[in-house]
Amino acid sequence: MSPNMTSKTTSLLPRLRLAASGKNSITFVGSAAGTDEPQVVLWRTMHEEALAGAASLQARGVKSGDHVALLGLTSRSLVTAIQAVWLAGACVIVLPIPMRMNSISEFISQTRAHLHSGNAKMLLLSSDLAALYEPQEGDPAVVLLDELMPGPDKLSSVSYQPIDDDPDRLAILQFTSGSTSAPKGVMLPHRAVCANIDAMDELIKLDLEDDVLVSWLPLYHDMGLIGILTTSMIKGCSLVLTAPQDFLNKPADWMRWMSNYRGTITAGPNFSYILATRALRRMSNSREILDLSRIRMALNGAEPIDPDSVEKFVEAAARHGFRPGAEFCAFGMAEVTIAGTFPPLMRRMVCDSVDRVALENESRARPADPALPSTRRLPLLGSPVPGLQMRIIDPETGLPLPPRKVGELQVRGASVTTGYYNRPDLTKKLFDDGWLHTGDLGYFVTAPDGQTEELVICGRLKDVIIIAGRNIYPEDIERAAGTVEGVRKGNVIAFSIDSGRGKESVIIVAEVKEGSHAEIRKNIRYRALGVCGIKAKEIVLVRPGTLPKTSSGKLQRSLCRKQYLDNKLTPAEE
């Protein structure tokens, strides 16, 4: 049976109450548990504690419609506080924690900017980060997460004032990753969040008796916050949750958690599957055996998907019982809440093989022999989830384009954002007669079933390198350079600069581990020349961990370009 008890209300509040009547739980593991042993919490118990937290927020002056920011590592108190904010009628802002703590001052500056641009009335701060943040005049009130909850012995004494279920009230202010620009606050009302989660559930068909979701994703990222946590919280699914630093410190544990907790659904960006593949290969060499046979959906999204990396993961995981077909290449973005397109379950990854020259010169996805070196393989990402419509338009004319013609993807529908908070100028540019500009370049192609059309993404409009009338996609150069011995795969950025007289030149910046820099540069130049036919003007080798990335791990090409022009890149030592 697939007893999904969630009602079709358009507010999170009644769904939280209904999910709390179920028998499933959230299990905190690793650093999220705070102990060596897993911490199992029934959704019912968490809801009771969240009601107490909501009452505490109300007592501190938080009202319906206020914005409350949260800053902390993944933990029981952080997850409970997220639900408490909703129960108090406020909007959740989960603030990012950089994956690389290169600069504490930069982190604090970013945090303060988010607090003020998001108009946060209060900051709920975990005690382990309290020493890093010192409030200044004009900052919102700070309450430690540990002080928010009254404690189990006082739960019955708190006085919670019920909040009306307003579907148009903001549920989440999701700051974009800033991979191509400065972060912006995406407004997501309750109705949009509910619509998108319902759309995902309609396609995934969550089974409350059987499904176990497993996640290490950061809760400040839409995939972790909405796609996994909120979905589990309002549907009443079993969830195993740990912190991103646990995965980054020991990528093998992700697959161990899937095995130990009999996980069926998980998600991660492309780079995480690369790390998981390496870990699985080491396990096979050491004869450690996992049971990954229950996985029915391993979603790959949030950043460009490399087909080679997906295939290598499937091969490595299959030795541990992973069923080929459970790999799930999808498209999503904060501006549509999270899920944009989903492929059919258990289909296996399907790629469209197209001629790179036609793609660059004609903006046309012309089918080509996959074996040819001039062919580019692009994964099919499925069809729009229920409630969304999509179209491809010519970026210059705004006119819709036919299948296999590359243009900008536009979206409209039930789960689309209402705009950027306090930025009417950007909100106006975001929409075209009700259609949202995604900034993604792609096309539609007939699916293998011959009945539907599926989305294919080629790149980002702002990142495309235009040379001699050709649209060169930086991902192609970056992946080619990433295959060079000594280069850290997934840590290469390509962009263009003005070389004068209206000419553009390609710059490649790569993190390197070891080896002859002259040899590495020569091989990068050779691989880049082979993939795009253009000689790079300069190849810059930098230290590991220094390429600019967003808090969710996406490469920041525009910032890297600025650092290059300002001569602020950190060169590698040979």
Describe the structure.
This protein is of the alpha/beta class. The chain folds into 3 domains: 211 residues, 3-Layer(aba) Sandwich (Rossmann fold), CATH 3.40.50.12780; 109 residues, Luciferase, domain 3 (Roll); 101 residues, ANL, C-terminal domain (GMP Synthetase, Chain A, domain 3). The protein is built from 16 helices and 28 strands. Helix 2 packs across helix 3. The chain is globular, with a radius of gyration of 23 Å. The mean pLDDT is 90.
CATH topology-level name of the largest domain = Rossmann fold
Count the strands? Answer: 28
**The CATH H-level homologous superfamily of the largest domain:** ANL, N-terminal domain
CATH architecture group name of the largest domain = 3-Layer(aba) Sandwich
Content-based structural category: alpha/beta
**Count of structural domains:** 3
Distance between the termini: 60 Å
Helical content (DSSP H or I, runs of 4+): 25-40%
User: How would you characterize the largest beta sheet?
Assistant: 5 strands, antiparallel
Low-confidence stretches: none
Keywords:
GMP Synthetase, Chain A, domain 3, 30% helix, 574 residues, five-stranded antiparallel β-sheet, alpha/beta, Rossmann fold
Put the structure in a nutshell.
This protein is of the alpha/beta class and 574 residues long. It has 3 domains: 12-26 and 43-238, 3-Layer(aba) Sandwich (Rossmann fold), CATH 3.40.50.12780; 352-460, Luciferase, domain 3 (Roll); 465-565, 2-Layer Sandwich (GMP Synthetase, Chain A, domain 3), CATH 3.30.300. The radius of gyration is 23 Å and the shape is globular.
